[in-house]
Predict the structure.
Amino acid sequence: MNNSINTEHLPIKDLLVSGLIIFIMSTILANIFDPLWGIAYAFGNILTLTFLGWLYQETWSKP
């Protein structure tokens, strides 16, 4: 079984927007609270997006 991802149909705009939101929110949290909270927020969101990408990989993989 070939698990290569078809990058032609990946939503690049969605990935950039979500990355920008993660960066902005983690910066705001780090400035309001402790920098550790900003790092934890960014790390948690990246893990969540990675898990969701793995979960829905069949949607954009080659059949």
The radius of gyration is 15 Å. Helices lie at 12-32, 35-55, 57-60. The chain has a mean pLDDT of 76.
